[in-house]
Amino acid sequence: MARKSNINGTEATFSTASLPEHPGKEHVGGKLDSFNHKGPNGLHTCVTFEPLGRSFETLLQHPSLLQDEHHFTPTAYHPTVWSATLVRELCRQMILALDFLHSNRIMHRDIQPGNMLLALKSMTETEIQRSLWDVDNVPQDIKDRGSTIKHEVVNESLDPEWQMMNLRRSLFSLNMTVRLDGEPLHERDPKYTVGVIHLPDRLTFDPPAHPKCVLIDLGSSCRFEDYNDGQIPYPIDVRSPQIHLGLPYDEKADIWVLGVTLCRVVTLVPLIFADSTFGESDEEVKQETEDINLVSIIERVGPLTPDLQSYRPNRDKYINELGELLHPDPVDPEVTANGDMHHVIQLARPLDMSDREATIFESMIKDMLQYDPGKRPSTTELLQHP
């Protein structure tokens, strides 16, 4: 949910339609339209977007979805599925998307695999209807449940066959409407609501694969001049050191977060592990957790710079005066000095990614994950990277 200080006032998100044309514009999922709906629990802002398919988070959490079109067997690391060519194109599209936003002085502030979606292949109206009406795999008890509650929730003024088919498809996300004030529903109030109904996106990764990636959820976005507004942006495991330390940040925080995210997209494994302090009231526990999160960053990126060390009162417990970990668990002797990002990329890269390609990719990610925000490349510079 967007805040009133965001780009378009009280809108749940802003429209990119009025922004200048740019190659990355098609890779940013701005709103198509919005309207207000008055329901039994108040006024709701509804926003419409283009239909989109699976998120990268879904693919990363369920690698078996990266399937061979003909055999449907898990092939997450198969070179003809999650290939170097494919991930290179996906990275290019996400950099283009962020370049579009940054060229308009807009920070995204919520870049993560869950907000990177694959565009749907075109579907005819008939195909959409068939997808919604497909109940061959619905268990009989669910069908029976649909028959039981039919007269309670179905609007009889509509075609009953369509209603029942749609209802059976939606039962797992069916919620009966309850007023928050405890009063009974008005006769005109909706008796139930239905959650998202997913259409099959019909996406496969067999070569030649040309997926289109779209960066969505601009609800936390802001103008460059408004970024230090008190909000703690980004998921915990992708935040830059400045945000972990509660320091001011700028648009280069987007660059750090994109670097962590692209590394995960290419390797299919997290680069940095972090624990959340959300809801924790014990200040000592919160500080200890933040120290652990910084240790995870140091393990991957390398020694913490002196300017950042000064903001951690407990730094002597886990780093020396050079910012190196006191108790590293290195894969290689050089890890203590340089971080083990190299090993993550080398071990988990796509099987058909050459040594040269892996070195180039590692070089780009290291540039994006520099501790000094001023040294991180701009999106324009990233697009010029080999």
If you had to describe this structure to a student in words, what would you say it looks like?
The protein is 35% helix and 9% strand. It is α+β, with helices and mostly antiparallel strands and 386 residues long. The strands form four sheets. Strands 3-5-8 form a three-stranded antiparallel β-sheet. It has a two-stranded antiparallel sheet with strand order 1-2. A hairpin with a 2-residue loop joins strand 1 and strand 2. Helix 2 packs antiparallel against helix 7 (252-267) and helix 7 (252-267) runs antiparallel to helix 12. It is globular, with a radius of gyration of 24 Å.
Radius of gyration, CA atoms, in whole angstroms:
24 Å
State the end-to-end CA separation: 37 Å
* Structural shape: globular
Parts with pLDDT < 50 across at least 5 consecutive residues: 1-12, 67-77, 145-158
Q: SS-based structural class?
A: alpha+beta
Residues in helix, %: 25-40%
Query: Helix-strand pattern, N to C?
Result: EEEHHEEHHHEEEEHHHHHHHH
Topology, number of strands: 9
Strand order of the largest sheet: 3-5-8
Descriptive keywords:
single chain, 386 residues, alpha+beta, 3-stranded antiparallel beta sheet, two-stranded antiparallel ribbon, 9 strands, 35% helix, globular
Topology record:
Blueprint: E1 33-39, E2 42-48, E3 52-55, H1 56-61, H2 84-103, E4 106-107, E5 116-119, H3 125-133, H4 140-153, H5 160-170, E6 174-176, E7 192-194, E8 213-215, E9 222-223, H6 241-244, H7 252-267, H8 283-301, H9 306-309, H10 335-338, H11 341-348, H12 355-368, H13 379-383
